[in-house]
Amino acid sequence: MIGHDAGRTYHNPGTSGPQTGVSERWAASISTREFPPTVADGRAYIGGASLRALDIDDGSQTWARSPPNCRYTAPTIGPEAVYSAVTNQDDGERNVTIQAFDAADGTRRWATDPLVEGDSVAASAPALVDGMIFGLVRSGQERFFYAVSLDSRAVEWRHTVAEPVKEFAVTDGTLVYAIEEQVRAVSTTDDTVQWAVNSPPVQGLAAASGTVVVVSGDSLTALATEDGTERWRSELEPIVEPGFEGSNRFSQPAIADGSVIIGTASSLLPRVIEEGGATLYKRDLVTGDRQETRAAVLRPTVPDDFDFFNEIPSVSYGWGRPAVSSDTIFVPQYGSIDGGSGFRSDQSGLVALDRETFEVQWTSTDVSPVPVIVAEDRLFAMSTRSYESFLTMLEEPATNDT
Fold first, then answer.
1. How many helices (H) and strands (E) does the chain have?
2. Nearest 5°: phi and psi at 364?
3. What whole-number distance in Å separates Cα of residue 183 and Cα of residue 397?
4. What are the tens digits of pLDDT across the range 179-220?
5. Phi, psi of 5 (to 5 degrees)
6. Residues pairing with 83 in the sheet
7. CA pair distance 115, 160, nearest whole angstrom
8. What residues does 89 pair with on adjacent strands?
C-alpha cells in the first residue's frame, strides 16, 4: 500500500536494498497516476485504467484486468489477495466498489455493493488493517471515509467530511486525517471522533508508535495519537536574505523504529551556496531530540562571478521523502538553478545513507530525484523519457569477478 503501511511511514523493515549503488534492471511503461506500485511476493501491482501484476525480476506482465470504463486505485495486499477501490461507469452513472482479486492470476473473488454513486465520483487508495479496509470516497462535494470488513464484505461505518482531505493514516486503532488547517482522529471501531487539533496548512502526515507527525510548511509537529496532545514542535528559522525572495520548508517524513526522518527544501539561492542550506534530520519520535543531521550531498555548481541580483534565479533545492529499509535510508535530493539568461546548473539524484550513522553509502545522479519504493531488496522509481512515464526497477550493480 502507499507508504508501505497504513501509517504511511515509508519504512519496510523486512528488506535491505542496494548497498553499493544502483543500476536499472528493467522499465515498464505506466501512467504517472499509477505510481507508486504495491510490491509483494515477487510482484509489483499497478492500478490505473487496468490492474496489472508485473514480475519484479524482469518486468514482464504476470496478469492484467482491463474491463472498459473502470479505474483501479493502487491496491493494498492481504493474504493471497489484492484489494482495490474500483471506479466503474455504467450507463452514464459512476460508482465505486471495493474489489478483491487473486494475487496469483488476477481472478476477481468478490466485490462490495457500491460505496457511492453519481456523475462525478473518485476514490483514494485503500489501507488494510486487521481485516478491515479503510479508504476515502467522493461523490460531487460529498466525501466520507469508510470501513469495510473482509469477513462480511459490508460497510461497518462511514465518516462524513465536509472539506477536501489532504492525507490520512491508520494506526493504533485510530484513523487520522488532515484537512486544510486541522488534524482529526476517529476510532477505527465505530468512527467516534476522538480529537481535533487546529494546525497551519497541512502538507502531509505519517503515524506510528502512538505518535502522528504533521508537516505544515516551515513547522513539524508531533501529536499523541491517543488524544492529540502536542509532544513537540520544530520550526525552521525565518529567512532573512536581503534582495532575495523564496521559502524554506520541511519535505515529507518517514518514520522508522522510534525516529522521524525528514529533510528541508529551499527556493533561495543563498541556501544552495552555504553548507547546510538543505538538511536531512533524524529526530526522536516521542521527544523530538535531534539524533543525526546530514547536509545536502548533491549541490548545483554556482560560478564565482554569478550575478545574484540581476539574474533573479529560479531555485529548487532540497531533500525529498525518504524510503527506509532495515539498514539504509534512500532519499531523493534535487538541486537546480535557472539564471534566466541561459545559465543553468543541475545536480540531482538519489542518496543512500546508513540508518544508524547517517554516513553516505553511495549517490547516483542517473536516477530521477523522485521518491522511491524499497521492497524485496530492490528499489522502484518513476522515470520519464520522451514524455512517457516508466516504472523502473533498480538493483545492486552487477560485479565483474574475473
1. 2, 38
2. -140, 125
3. 43
4. 988 999 999 999 899 999 999 999 999 999 999 999 998 999
5. -140, 175
6. 76, 100
7. 13
8. 94
